[in-house]
Design goal:
heterodimer, A: Rossmann fold, Rossmann fold, 2 domains, 15 helices, B: about 260 residues, TIM Barrel, nine-stranded parallel beta sheet, 9 strands, about 45% helix, binds pyridoxal-5'-phosphate
């Protein structure tokens, strides 16, 4: 098969000016991949800097609540910076060091990848610019604050739908001018080759750990593994631990937004809104119109609000190895509430999509079976969105009070 | 006559040819038509008709905004074909090329897109996000239909890469003057001089130089160095600021006529 392709999906649709940059990146990546000491250095760094391996928590109360399968939660929220995003970023950071570049750029949707990149840049002494859609800046304000405090420049993107895809375009526009000194730390398993394959490699640390942990705790493999799918990096991360185990069913959960029938969602692999296309450097299923113009997407979770999906997942979906489902905004809030109340765990809005589907299916599984939910991140970053969704009156009073205080001190 | 031969022939009478660019549907097809008329009447040799795409990754802010506005006004790919057919018939002395991103071609169907373009008299394609490695079918079908798939040279291209891509294209080679997106100014310096002589050595195809050219001086500086100067963002800005009537005098000024 052609390099960078997964079935009919993937490729490297890049402007000519980036040809040499990609040639060098491919070289550095392939060299690192062939060098066992690179992976050792990577896992050592992640253990020392980022609490890896992250726990696999047995959710006793949730399991009891649903009365079916034993529910285990892979705790990527306990990774440093609060999400799986740092796995990829630290890996690419080590590559940046090898390539000798001095600056990194990244796109971000939820802001988790931006915070992770800003963190890596601070740690490795690199200059850092983050592109973020204006709409995402508005709904993920705490992450913007942290990126700036970590020393990154956050550039609001006001083009197009002002979300993740537009931030990716903006990052590419920076890169075609700056590639001599700059590496583009793409945040998910999308984009031109080698990004999908490379990011999946760094994220495979999740699945490697989870496979070992579930055998230790449950004595055998799980029946099913659930993960939310934006670009697909946390899903690919955990799935890779079980891809070669035909008995383990893999379920990717997309953003159902206001419902698949409303058109206000970001589901590429379920529903009938997506079709094959080529954009942002790769071929996959895109939410687009007949002409090939990208559609507006919607999700309560900024990190899932994206028109494309990993070419690797498009292929695994087409082959039937991964089953795709969608969770609506409303279901997500309910699953989040239940998880907080029963387990004292606060999933990110993105991750809560995986919880929704697992909760739907857990009751139908036998009590001696296990399922794993990949909790890609923690919900603290979503405090404004979640408080708004709960229409929380004491939070509102707090914000109004704080605003009044700032207003009077500004005068 | 094939595009490359036509360009070489025109070059016998002119020190440097002119290729202009516009985004279809921005600000409207009616204004596009008037702009094209002014360009044609003032001696423009080639015109790039950009079919808008929602994700124009290689374009700077001016062209990006034009793409978005054209789409927001409801422009469809079918409208672009119909419009192109009209202006090609009306201005037979101009070589028209389609510039767009690959998804537009892919969604239309490569075969249908190329066949339809050939039928209406389009001379070639400029697709910045389709490297030759990904464009096997497109390259083959274009060549078969007598249309020129335009290839790119860039300052980051090695000599070897230049020879490789030039071998896959026809018509002319689009030489990108510098790193970055469309719409920024370029000055002639030793680096650019050296780059252009590398371009010249890599191919027998005519060379066009683009990105940020906007005045008579820029055009003069290209005489004897490349075959065709590409005017991109400058005319879009001009039409924004002073309307389509300003285009004719601007083109005449560029050519010193
Ligand atoms: C916590 C969290 N989960 C999931 C995602 C979605 O990305 P991916 O599908 O690449 O894991 C994001 C993206 O920002 C995120 O922040």
């Amino acid at each position: 098969m052609k390099k960078g392709y997964f079935g009919q999906w993937g490729g490297a649709f890049i402007p000519e000016v980036l040809y040499e940059t990609f040639a060098r990146l491919n070289h550095a990546y392939e060299e690192a991949r062939a060098d066992a000491s690179f992976w050792q250095e990577y896992t050592r760094l992640m253990a020392n800097y980022s609490c890896r391996p992250t726990p696999l928590t047995y959710a006793e109360n949730l399991s009891e609540h649903f009365g079916g399968a034993r529910i285990y939660i892979k705790r990527e929220d306990l990774n440093h910076t609060g999400a799986h995003k740092l796995n990829n970023v630290m890996g690419q950071g080590l590559l940046v060091r090898r390539m000798g570049k001095k600056r990194v750029i990244a796109e971000t949707g939820a802001g988790q990848h931006g915070v992770a990149t800003a963190t890596m840049a601070a740690r490795f002494g690199l200059a850092c610019t983050i592109y973020m859609g204006e709409e995402d800046i508005a709904r993920q304000r705490p992450n913007v604050f942290w990126m700036e405090k970590l020393g990154a420049t956050v550039v609001p993107v006001t083009d197009g739908s002002r979300t993740l895809k537009d931030a990716i375009n903006a990052a590419f526009r920076d890169w075609v001018a700056s590639m001599d000194e700059t590496h583009y730390v793409l945040g998910t398993v999308c984009g031109p080759h080698p990004f999908p394959e490379m990011v999946a490699w760094f994220q495979s640390i999740i699945g490697k750990e989870a496979n070992r942990q579930i055998r230790e705790q449950h004595g055998r493999l799980p029946a099913r593994v659930y993960a939310c799918v934006g670009g697909g990096s946390n899903a690919m991360g955990v799935f890779q631990g079980f891809l070669d185990e035909p008995g383990v069913e893999l379920i990717g959960v997309e953003a159902g937004g206001k419902g698949l029938d409303t058109g206000e969602h970001a589901s590429r692999m379920v529903g009938d809104l997506a079709s094959p296309g080529v954009a942002q450097g790769y071929k996959t299923m895109f939410l687009q119109d007949r002409d090939g113009q990208m559609l507006h997407t919607h999700s309560i979770a900024a990190g899932l609000d994206y028109v494309g999906v990993s070419p690797i997942l498009a292929d695994l979906g087409e082959k039937g190895r991964v089953r795709f489902e969608a969770a609506t905004d409303r279901e997500v809030i309910r699953a989040l509430e239940l998880t907080m109340r029963t387990e004292g765990i606060i999933p990110a809005l993105e991750s809560a999509h995986a919880f929704v589907q697992a909760f739907k299916e857990a009751p139908d599984l036998a009590v001696d079976e296990a399922i794993i939910i990949n909790m890609s991140g923690r919900g603290d970053k979503d405090i404004f969105t979640i408080a708004h969704a709960f229409d929380d009156s004491s939070w509102k009073a707090f914000i109004i009070g704080l605003a009044a205080e700032y207003q009077s001190s500004n005068r | 006559m094939k595009l490359a031969a036509d360009i070489k022939k025109r070059r016998q009478d002119k020190p440097v040819l002119l290729m202009t660019h516009l985004v279809l549907g921005y600000p409207s097809l009616a204004v596009n038509r008037e702009v094209i008329r002014q360009m044609a009447e003032n001696g423009v040799d080639c015109i790039e008709l950009q079919i808008p795409f929602s994700e124009p990754m290689a374009d700077g802010p001016v062209i990006l905004k034009a793409n978005q506005k054209a789409l927001a006004a409801g422009l469809r790919v079918a409208d672009c074909f119909a419009f192109a057919a009209g202006v090609i018939a009306e201005f037979p002395r101009v070589n028209f090329l389609f510039m767009t991103y690959y998804n537009i071609v892919f969604r239309y169907g490569e075969k249908d897109f190329i066949r339809r373009a050939a039928e209406i008299g389009i001379r070639g394609f400029i697709i910045p996000d389709l490297p030759p490695e990904e464009g096997e079918t497109y390259l083959q079908l274009s060549q078969q239909s007598g249309l020129a798939p335009i290839m790119f040279f860039t300052p980051t291209s090695s000599d070897e890469r230049m020879r490789q891509v030039a071998g896959r294209g026809s018509g002319f080679v689009y030489c990108v003057a510098r790193r970055g997106v469309t719409g920024q100014h370029t000055v002639m310096d030793a680096d650019l001089e050296n780059y252009l002589s590398r371009c010249r050595r890599a191919t027998d195809l005519p060379l066009a130089l683009g990105f940020g050219i906007g005045c008579r001086q820029d055009v003069v500086m290209l005489e004897g160095r490349v075959d065709m100067a590409v005017i991109g963002t400058a005319t879009i800005r001009l039409v924004d600021d002073r309307g389509p009537e300003a285009v004719g005098p601007f083109i005449a000024g560029l050519l010193g006529s």
